[in-house]
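Predict structure. Chain length: 283.
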Amino acid sequence: MSVVPAEVLPGAARADGSRPGDGTDTEDGVRAVAGLGPRARLWPALAAVYRAQLSRARVARIPLLFVATFQSVGIMVLMRGVVDGGDEAHAVVAGSSVLVVAFVALNLLAQYFGQLRASGGLDHYATLPVPPAAVVLGAAAAYASFTVPGTLVTAVVGCMLFGLPLTHLWILIAVIPLAGAALAGLGAALGLLAPRPELATLLGQLGMSAALLLGVLPPDRLPMIVQYARDLLPSTYGVEAFALTFGANPDWGVVLLDLAVCAGVGVASLAVATWAYRRAAVR
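Prediction complete.
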């Protein structure tokens, strides 16, 4: 007596009541047979990834955040012997404050995604019913969140060191997330596109060095060709917006324009990072 699987019998019904070839042999039909739930929506998935990343990285990233803050404050102390005040002091304080964001959101995120790709961690995320954008945005938001205390401390210390007003430090509420999004998208893209984690680390370090040299140094003292390169750096517009608020009568129209450009660059860089995630996850 032979045993024949029920699936090969003509007209045999499946457990869910459907029949082969009746139009349910689609991805939704397979999902229903396998008992899988629907794909998660973007915002709930993003919140879940953000909480998971924030919890995972809280202990490990706090010492690195201290290093980033100490580094930025040290740079301002060194520049205090060269810069007396005026627009140059505005550029130094604003650039040093945003440098904290660059250290965490660009450098560390590039290393994280580079290691995640090399260790096969992307396979774990690929099996979850989570949109790729939620993975990139959640990780970027978590890393950018760690920059808030260090950026505030650096800005306050810089204002006291150069005698700048503290009146408009509230602009950091916009500068930190916008510059963080732009730099985090760039860092994630570098980590995901780099073929080896060592190269991802190198690219992250080079990006942070660019943010240091092009963001902290007064632009008027840079060669013209370097000033053009400075305009290509995503964090430049956040630095410019913050630096303008130290003036006696800030031009808020220009500040908003710089923030809008920073936001546009952030959207573009996060879109590239999402594409890079899709590309790396299927390999």
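Summary: The mean pLDDT is 81.
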